């Protein structure tokens, strides 16, 4: 994409935007367009050189500046934004419909009205080339926990909860300050400031065993930042150990289900993977559960720990 | 064309002398394109390229005909890529060449006003995508809605915020192929029975189901509708044939097609009895009911009842706990766990 391909849509939208908001502040307009105030001024400067054939004073786009606010005196015929492209309409309408699919969505009616209005303005699109189903599976316990969590989010109150941490296989009591509820890859999470861990944590909704809303307000510290989910939920860190595993065909799903660092195809459809793990007990549970469908090549400490657990268990089946 | 002379209200902070001479190429081009759009929007007549060359500032920079036509072709392509409906036609039957214009009714977004709760839904929708292709398009739509006067505050908190990611390299090419109605070829690795082979598909759409992306279409080799998981596509997606050749059937529900081919949720549970070491196996305990306390090999523990779905997945789950969880009954599950543990001991 070249510079004008990014800039031209903004230039074409700017004049109608200003017409709709006479006297808007430069900073506010810049924020709405996702550019710096400096860039916005450059755009205005450029538009002010454009206009209708003749290109005399009365033909050119005329903007007036008062202090830090802008108004349009003459729009040269550019009074409405360009219609949505097929891709734009798809991206927005499919996203809106996906919201309807989220458990506990509060404003389904508003979403449907927004879809209808955008379809009416954008023109009925072709059948969308993209479809999304969140497909969140929710048992009765999880549905109840989710309702409590959502009511705490609405009333901005803290929560007390019993939470199962799968990586450590432990159940803990925590007081948390809820920030938002997320749905990522078919799973629902509560993002909250955990007072015990003194950090922002993502709690899987189906691992909240018990939860109550507290009287005290939710008060995440001002420096509590939302988690960046663009790279997924589990972020391996370089200080975590790496397991080198060979997966038989029946265990290949592991490489699709868990984040792996590297994958190499082996003969007989086996797969060698390198996988980081945060907790030894978690990795041992995974490996024991996979039975003989996985061979651990490294590290040696993992091999011996696994052997010890397997032999210990076998002694109980005699 | 230095307007600062006649324009006392000029934007502040502009250099005073003739700016036109120092502006760089991309500014000149952006300015030319805006002028071209304004010119074609304002004309009812089709304007031939030669007239546009004379009228629209910037084209006179072209040193010769070749340079002009290259410039003009590039500009037309860019306008079309932005979705600007460029009309081509002749004003009179005796005109020798085609001309261009933009019909205002096709160019302009229709009137739209959103209530605050509708605008909040739009703000949330725009945040749904974690995808280079779809995030960009959603922001493009937001820009235009804002330009149409809709106020969308992106800071509004939501009670539930879904996210949809596209990380598979095949996503972009497949979406583009669906949009252009073009067939594709790719290598696909099926996990079990394991197989890597080339596929030829007439794609109808891309589908995200439970966080995984699929492409649905007519599989030419099998002559039947099929879906393929994007993460299992190996290497590049190749475009085959001409754009517009693929027709999507009217009655196909992409999402249903994918959802119905993935494994159904089972709700038939059976109850099994386990021994769990005291204070261990929390993951099993949170789903289980303690029946009685009991020692095993001199170690304190509890006998519990646990509802499970499938013997296979339950065996993996329980075997994971090693010596901390022992199946008492049924026998079939006890054997399944025992076999897993034996196999681990054999390969380590």
How is the secondary structure organized here?
The complex is a heterodimer of chains A (318) and B (348).
Chain A: H1 3-20, E1 24-25, H2 26-33, H3 37-47, E2 62-66, E3 69-74, H4 86-100, H5 108-122, E4 130-133, H6 140-155, E5 157-165, E6 170-184, E7 187-194, E8 199-204, E9 208-217, E10 242-247, H7 253-257, E11 262-265, E12 271-276, H8 280-289, E13 294-298, H9 300-315
Antiparallel strand pairs in A: 1-3, 2-3, 5-6, 5-9, 6-7, 7-8, 10-12, 10-13, 11-12
Chain B: H1 25-42, E1 47-48, H2 49-55, H3 65-81, E2 86-89, E3 99-102, H4 104-107, H5 116-126, E4 129-130, H6 132-147, E5 161-165, H7 171-180, E6 183-190, E7 195-209, E8 212-219, E9 224-229, E10 233-240, H8 254-261, E11 270-277, H9 282-285, E12 289-293, E13 301-308, H10 311-319, E14 325-329, H11 331-347
Parallel strand pairs in B: 4-5
Antiparallel strand pairs in B: 1-3, 2-3, 6-7, 6-10, 7-8, 8-9, 11-13, 11-14, 12-13
Helix pairs in contact in B: 5-6, 10-11
Taken in chain order, the helices and strands of chain B follow as HEHHEEHHEHEHEEEEEHEHEEHEH
* Overall CATH class of the largest domain in chain B: Mainly Alpha
Q: What can be said about the biggest beta sheet of chain B? A: 5 strands, antiparallel
Specify the overall morphology of chain A.
Answer: elongated
What fraction of the residues of chain B are assigned to beta strands by DSSP? 25-35%
Tell me the number of helical segments of chain B per DSSP (H or I, 4 or more residues long): 11
The helicity of chain A comes to 25-40%
């Amino acid at each position: 994409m070249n510079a004008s391909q990014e800039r031209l849509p903004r230039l074409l939208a700017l004049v109608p935007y200003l017409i709709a908001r006479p006297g808007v502040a430069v900073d506010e307009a810049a924020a709405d367009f996702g550019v710096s105030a400096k860039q916005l001024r450059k755009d205005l400067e450029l538009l002010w050189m454009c206009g209708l054939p003749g290109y005399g004073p009365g033909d050119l786009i005329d903007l007036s500046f008062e202090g830090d606010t802008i108004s349009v005196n003459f729009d040269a015929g550019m009074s409405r934004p360009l219609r949505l492209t097929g891709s734009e309409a798809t991206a927005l309408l499919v996203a809106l419909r996906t919201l309807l699919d989220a458990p506990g969505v509060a404003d389904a009616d508003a979403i449907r009205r927004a879809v209808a209005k955008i379809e009416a303005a954008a023109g009925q699109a072709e059948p969308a080339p993209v479809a999304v189903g969140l497909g969140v599976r929710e048992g009765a316990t999880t549905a109840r926990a989710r309702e409590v969590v959502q009511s705490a989010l609405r009333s901005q109150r803290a929560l007390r909860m019993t939470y199962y941490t799968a990586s450590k296989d432990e159940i803990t009591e925590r007081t948390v300050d809820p920030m938002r509820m997320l749905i990522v890859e078919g799973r629902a999470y509560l993002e909250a400031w955990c007072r015990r861990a003194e950090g922002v944590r993502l709690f899987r909704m189906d691992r909240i065993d018990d939860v109550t809303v507290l009287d005290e307000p939710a008060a995440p510290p001002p420096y509590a930042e939302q988690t960046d989910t663009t790279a997924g939920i589990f972020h391996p860190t370089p200080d975590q150990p790496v397991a080198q595993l060979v997966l038989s065909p029946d265990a290949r799903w592991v490489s699709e289900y868990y984040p792996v660092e590297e994958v190499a195809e082996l003969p007989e459809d086996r797969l060698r993977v390198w996988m980081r793990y945060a907790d030894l007990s978690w990795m041992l549970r995974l490996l024991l559960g996979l039975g003989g469908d996985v061979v651990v090549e490294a590290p040696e400490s993992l091999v011996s720990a696994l052997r010890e657990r397997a032999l210990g268990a076998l002694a109980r089946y005699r | 064309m230095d307007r600062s002379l006649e324009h006392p209200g000029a934007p502040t902070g502009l250099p005073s002398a003739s700016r036109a001479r120092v502006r760089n190429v991309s500014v000149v081009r952006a300015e030319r394109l805006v002028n071209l759009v304004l010119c074609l929007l304002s004309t009812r007549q089709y304007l031939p390229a030669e007239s546009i060359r004379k009228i629209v500032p910037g084209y006179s920079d072209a040193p010769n005909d070749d340079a002009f036509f290259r410039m003009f072709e590039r500009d037309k392509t860019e306008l079309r890529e932005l979705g600007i409906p460029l009309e081509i036609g002749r004003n009179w039957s005796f005109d020798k060449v085609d001309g261009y214009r933009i019909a205002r009714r096709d160019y302009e977004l229709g009137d739209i006003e959103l209530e605050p709760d509708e605008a909040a839904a739009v703000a949330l929708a725009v945040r749904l995508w974690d995808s280079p292709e779809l995030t960009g398009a959603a922001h493009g739509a937001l820009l235009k809605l804002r330009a149409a006067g809709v106020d969308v505050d992106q800071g509004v908190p939501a009670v539930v915020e879904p996210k949809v990611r596209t990380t598979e390299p095949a996503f972009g090419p497949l979406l583009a192929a669906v949009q252009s109605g073009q067939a594709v070829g790719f290598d696909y690795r099926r996990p079990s029975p394991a197989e890597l082979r080339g596929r030829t598909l007439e794609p109808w759409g891309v589908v995200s189901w439970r966080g995984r992306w699929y492409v649905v279409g007519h599989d030419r080799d099998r002559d039947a509708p099929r879906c393929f998981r994007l993460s299992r596509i190996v290497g590049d997606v190749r475009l085959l044939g001409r754009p517009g050749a693929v027709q999507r059937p009217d009655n196909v529900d992409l999402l249903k097609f994918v959802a119905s081919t993935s494994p159904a949720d089972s709700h038939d549970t059976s109850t099994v009895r386990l021994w769990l070491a005291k204070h261990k196996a929390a993951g099993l305990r949170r789903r289980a009911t303690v029946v009685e306390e009991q020692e095993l090999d001199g170690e304190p523990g509890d006998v519990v009842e646990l509802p499970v779905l499938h013997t296979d997945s339950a065996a993996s789950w329980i075997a994971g706990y090693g010596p901390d969880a022992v199946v008492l009954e049924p026998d079939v599950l006890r054997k399944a766990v025992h076999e897993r543990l034996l196999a681990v001991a054999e390969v380590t």
